[in-house]
Specification:
By secondary structure, this protein is of the alpha/beta class. Helix 1 packs across helix 12, helix 13 packs across helix 19 and helix 15 crosses helix 19. It starts with 6 loop residues before the first helix and ends in a 9-residue tail after the last strand. A six-stranded mixed beta sheet has the order 9-14-13-12-10-11, with helices on both faces. It has a four-stranded antiparallel beta sheet with strand order 18-17-22-23, with no helix packed on it.
């Protein structure tokens, strides 16, 4: 989708910002470079707090719609849906901002500058913040990140609806407990092929207004003061013209933890001189002294403040009433029935059906008298929302969703089963104090729904989580506490057992895959999550989600957590066979592909190629198929087949449709060890289907993807 911007209007904003900054004193300019900025009444400038969050809804500012966590929305593989959610979030944001301004409320989390999305690559499932991302694949992350930003920022040529932020730039994915001192060492090939593409797409396609630097160092340079990242790549190579913010209190890490500077003066100078415009924190107070001592040229400070005021002017807050099309969005849109309906629909589209032996699902309400619902996440609101969340007016847990759905027609028995991660639910009780209740519930039930997993107290950001683990990271991928034991008790009952996993990451559920009847991956499904999952369990909705991450068989097969090389990581480079592959997900219906061909008589990679195919719903239920197109360079030393195209296709039962997916020249290019992007070989294989073209996906789905071959006839560049 092409973005149209009035470049003359933006140039006018910058001129106005320059005129404003020219009237400020040194101390006034310095005060404007921190996230909490004071008013300058003589210039008509109101106080403003830059810090706001909207990862999956307006966060930390009272009532707002809590959509599924980002990793869950990624499972829909749907670009259009992501923009629709971004637009809904920014609509609520504008309505809340107008209400807050009427009340003269400019507190933290009350502005229009949102530090989302997180487009880091979820390279290791142990990383606690991985559920904030769109998964492990650079292509999928790019597409979803771009469209979410478009939804947040809007399509008006003169104004931003809100200002989005691509974070954390760059090469950032744990360990959380070391993030203030860690140096992520990465070769040029992995940097360009894995860690940078989503940021580049956000900058060049979505024209994201803000980029946030990461806490860690990358190849020796602290990211919030990296000349290579912020100047050479971001501004000079990619043409970024917004503003750069530090992560919160990251600049003091330069001298306190990274040891690359000796004191605060040197730290703020390094950050400012290398392109960081805004300090989330207060250390930039030292900029006044740095300018006076000649460590920072005042012209660079002026440039930073101009960047910041240009962003504020794009939001229309300095213009006359009536100019900005977003200023009159009524507060009644917030948490409205339409928003709740959209939220439930989004949650329904995120759930992934991982296993369904003997068509255990969907359940038939008419044939069931009693359902047993067990597990620590069955009635856990925190397992609905992930982190960076808002406040819902109503939360529907899985237990409540099932109770609401079946009403008085079916008896629902419930047991917490066990604590989420401790060995007892009560401190004075004996270990496994709910085992007898679990046995009793299972004995009386016709079918058992076990709701297990994690919540944001176990995986999340360093400083936010209260777990017994590594500052938000997971020590392993096993279900914590006694959850596995409770599942064994359920299995021993002889009743059908359906496992609903509420997690923000991949778990090793090998035993569960071998022994349980059905498994749903529900992620952190948002405030309406219980209603959505109930509708899927009972067949009102046909699951369509696909995994945006690989589910490994064991923790032991993972490379070292601190190793940022992509070798052996994610579906693109792994050699082992996964438990559940990236791109995998079952449905209550079946899809078949036929008539796969190129539209061009002589496909030319240089010009891009278009693949056409017919996809048919051969089952008895309507559904939405996620078409996935992968490209593999048939040359030694290249990655596995990589996702390069997606398409969502709604098909009624028995319906077929001819579709096309265009693959540009870039889909066939790979980076070499020097970071040069090149056509990677003579021969390529293109795979089209509902999964990736690996043997494990074929085993699980019973289908092979369709294959086409194409060739490159041009001159190949040799690697130096």
């Amino acid at each position: 989708m092409e973005l149209v911007q009035n470049r003359n209007k933006i140039a006018e904003y910058r001129r106005r910002a320059e005129e404003l900054v020219a009237q400020m004193t040194l101390s006034e300019k310095v005060a404007q470079t921190m996230h909490r900025t004071p008013a300058i009444e003589r210039l008509g400038i109101k106080a403003y707090n830059w810090w706001n969050e909207a990862l999956h809804g307006v966060a930390r500012a009272g009532t707002a719609t809590i959509f599924p966590q980002a990793i869950g929305m990624a499972a829909a593989f749907d670009e259009d849906m992501m923009e629709q959610v971004g637009d809904a979030v920014s609509t609520e944001a504008r309505a809340k901002f107008a209400m807050q301004q009427d009340g003269d409320d400019g507190d933290i989390y009350k502005g229009l500058t949102f530090w989302a999305p997180n487009v880091n690559i979820f390279r290791d499932p142990r990383w606690g913040r991985g559920h904030e991302t769109f998964g492990e694949d650079p292509y999928l992350t790019s597409r979803l990140g771009v469209r979410y930003i478009m939804g947040l920022q809007g399509h008006d040529e003169n104004y931003l609806k809100t200002a989005a932020c691509a974070k954390h730039f760059a090469v950032h994915s744990g360990p959380e407990e070391q993030r203030h001192s860690f140096d992520a060492l990465v070769n040029e090939q992995d940097l360009r092929e894995t860690y940078l593409p989503a940021f580049q797409a956000c900058v060049q396609e979505a024209r994201v207004e803000t980029v946030m630097g990461a806490y860690n160092r990358t190849n020796g340079e602290p990211c919030c003061g990296s000349g290579r990242l912020l100047n050479d790549i971001l501004r000079n190579e990619w043409g970024f013209d917004g503003h750069v913010t530090s992560d919160c209190w990251a600049i003091k890490d330069f001298h306190e933890h990274h040891g690359v500077t000796a004191n605060p003066i040197e730290s703020v100078s390094l950050a400012m001189n290398n392109g960081c415009d805004l300090n989330c924190g207060s250390l930039f107070l030292y900029l006044e002294q740095a300018v006076q001592e000649g460590l920072v040229d005042e012209r660079r400070l002026d440039e930073a403040v101009v960047n910041l005021f240009t962003s504020r002017m794009k939001l229309g807050v300095f213009d006359q009433k009536g100019d900005n099309p977003y200023e009159n969005i009524p507060y009644m849109v917030v948490d409205s029935p339409d928003m709740r309906k959209l939220n439930r629909q989004v949650a329904e589209r995120c759930v992934v059906l991982l296993k369904n032996d003997n068509q255990t699902l969907p359940l038939e309400k008419e044939k069931i008298r009693t359902i047993g619902v067990i597990g620590p996440n069955a009635d856990n609101r925190r397992a609905l929302v992930g982190n960076y969340e808002g406040t819902a007016s109503r939360y529907v847990t899985i237990l409540e969703g099932i109770q609401d759905y079946v009403g008085d027609d079916v008896r629902v028995l419930y047991s917490e089963g066990c604590h989420l991660y401790k060995d007892r639910t009560s401190g004075l009780a004996q270990e496994n104090d709910r085992a007898s209740e679990v046995r009793g519930v299972c004995r009386e039930s016709d079918v058992i729904v076990a709701v297990m997993g994690l919540d944001a107290s176990l995986e999340g950001e360093e400083g936010d989580t209260g777990n017994e683990y590594g500052s938000g990271d997971k020590p392993n991928l096993s279900l914590p506490g006694l959850q596995h034991d409770i599942l064994k008790l359920a299995k021993e009952s002889g009743k059908p057992v359906i496992l609903v996993l509420l997690t923000g990451s991949a778990m090793t559920v090998t035993w569960e895959d071998e022994n349980l009847d059905a498994i749903l991956q529900g992620w952190y499904p948002g405030a309406q999550g219980g209603a959505a999952i109930a509708r899927i369990l009972f067949g009102e909705v046909n699951p369509e989600g696909k995994l945006p991450v690989t589910f490994y068989r064991t923790t032991e097969e993972l490379p070292d957590f601190e190793d940022y090389s992509m070798q052996g990581r994610t579906y693109r480079y792994m050699e082992n066979k996964p438990l559940y592959p990236f791109g995998y997900g079952l449905s209550y219906t079946q899809y078949e592909y036929s008539d796969i061909a190129f539209t061009e008589e002589k496909p030319d990679i240089n010009a891009g190629v278009t693949v056409r195919f017919t996809v048919a719903n051969t089952g008895e239920r309507d559904g939405i198929e996620t078409v996935q197109v992968y490209v593999k360079a048939k040359r030694a030393g290249t990655p596995n087949a990589q996702l390069k195209g997606i398409k969502k296709v709604y098909l009624k039962a028995g319906e077929g449709r001819q579709c096309q997916v265009y693959l540009p020249r870039e889909a066939f290019m790979l980076y070499d060890k020097n970071g040069n992007n090149k056509i990677a070989g003579r021969e390529y294989e293109i795979s089209i289907g509902g999964s990736q073209p690996d043997t494990r996906s074929e085993e699980l789905t019973g289908h092979k993807t369709g294959r086409l071959r194409c060739f490159y006839d041009g001159a190949l560049e040799t690697e130096e």
